Every structure is written in C-alpha cells, then in structure tokens.
Backbone:
C-alpha cells in the first residue's frame, strides 16, 4: 500500500479549498494554505454511525439547551492519511459559528486535526458532506487512490 506524501495532500487540500470558497469566519487565518493544513492528521471519507453530545450549553436568554460539543463515530470507507482505522471518532463544536453538526447515516469527507489526543474538525477545516466533495475527491485521487482501512 502506497501513501501520498504529506506535502502532496497539503497541496491538494490547499487547491480544493480556495479562498473564494471559505466562509468569512475562516478568513481571519492569513497563513498560506500549505501552512494551515500542516496540522491535519486525518483525511478520510466515512459514514456517521453514531453521534453523542458530550457537552451541553444553555442559552442565557431563552433557556434552550443545545449541544456544544459532539463526537461522531464514522465507518471509514477510504482514507488518504496513514493511521486511519476502519472506525474513527471525530469531535466537533456544532454550537459555534465555525462548528460542524454531523448527521447519522450521512457520509462526509473529513479533514481533522489532532487536539488533546482527539481528532477535531469544523467548517474551516474543510469537512464537507461527501455529495458536495466531488472535486476535492478527484484532486485527492490525483495524488494517490487512498486506501481502505482495516
């Protein structure tokens, strides 16, 4: 099994996430794209099997309780970075403007960084539903076909 070099993955991700596509909240990071993506630990496609809210937040005005931190368990079908297993757990902050809320049964292209020993992602990381990631997946295939984790 051959893995693409990290610099190739970084280049593809940089091209796939051109500045015009990023949300305004993500534009505050002015580092060049290859620099921004050096911290990415995992790039994979997977279907969400379970979602657990690990931290809740109560709105101070209307009193509604919302999920602030969630962990999504993925069945990984394809990966481009080493050390991604068949099952991956990714943490996200759906309660923030740059967070991400995963839906059970839906497949995603996940780009995640390691924080405190866990994989984390959000809107600015580049995680998107698989059905909207065709061009990024094509670019990833140009550097290597990825692999099916064991």
Residues:
């Amino acid at each position: 099994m051959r893995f693409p070099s990290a610099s190739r993955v970084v280049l593809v991700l940089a091209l796939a996430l051109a500045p015009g596509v990023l949300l305004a909240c993500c534009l505050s990071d002015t580092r060049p794209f290859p620099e921004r993506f050096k911290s990415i630990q995992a790039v994979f496609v997977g279907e969400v099997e379970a979602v657990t809210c690990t931290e809740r937040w109560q709105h101070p005005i209307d009193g509604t309780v919302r999920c602030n931190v969630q962990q999504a368990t993925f069945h990984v079908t394809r990966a481009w970075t080493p050390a991604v297993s068949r099952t991956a757990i990714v943490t996200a902050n759906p309660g923030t403007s740059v967070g991400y809320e995963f839906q059970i049964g839906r497949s995603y292209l996940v780009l995640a960084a390691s924080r405190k020993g866990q994989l984390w992602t959000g809107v600015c990381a580049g995680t998107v539903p698989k059905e909207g990631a065709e061009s990024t997946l094509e670019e990833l295939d140009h550097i290597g076909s990825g692999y099916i984790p064991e």
